[in-house]
Amino acid sequence: MAAEVASVAPSADGDDVLVEAAAHRRHVIRAALCQLAMLPPSVGIAVVLYPLLRRHDEGMALGIVAARITAGLFLPIGVVLLLVLLTLSEESVAGDKPADRTGGCWPGHCARLATW
To answer: For residues 89 and 17, what is the distance between their CA atoms, to the nearest angstrom?
Structure first.
């Protein structure tokens, strides 16, 4: 529960997302690490509950396991997106052009990250 609360990055919300994320780098990294910490319990709960729920209804038990594993798959995606946001924000703030500070060329940033 504590990891779930700490996984929210308040600096990733708002109007100036790139500036805020760069200014609060530790918050964004902490949120990413907490999301990774939620992965084992998310899948583990389903694995532990499966034998208990299978006694009542095997289809329901498999559905719950599948749903928890699917939810667990989204956590690493969120971590990657937070780290991409952090990288983009640091590049944006470090840029000399005003266009870079307000987001600049998103396709260019994404292409650079994809080839990295």
So the answer is: 8
DSSP H or E stretch at residue 106: helix 106-115
85 Cβ contact list (under 8 Å, min separation 6): 12, 17, 18, 21, 28
Q: What are the start-end ranges of the H helices in 1-116?
A: 2-6, 17-23, 25-54, 58-94, 98-101, 106-115
Cα 23 from Cα 14, distance rounded (Å): 13
- pTM > 0.85: yes or no: no
At residue 53, the pLDDT reads: 92
Give pLDDT < 70 ranges for the chain.
1-15, 96-116
Instruction: Considering only CA atoms, give the Rg of the chain.
Output: 19
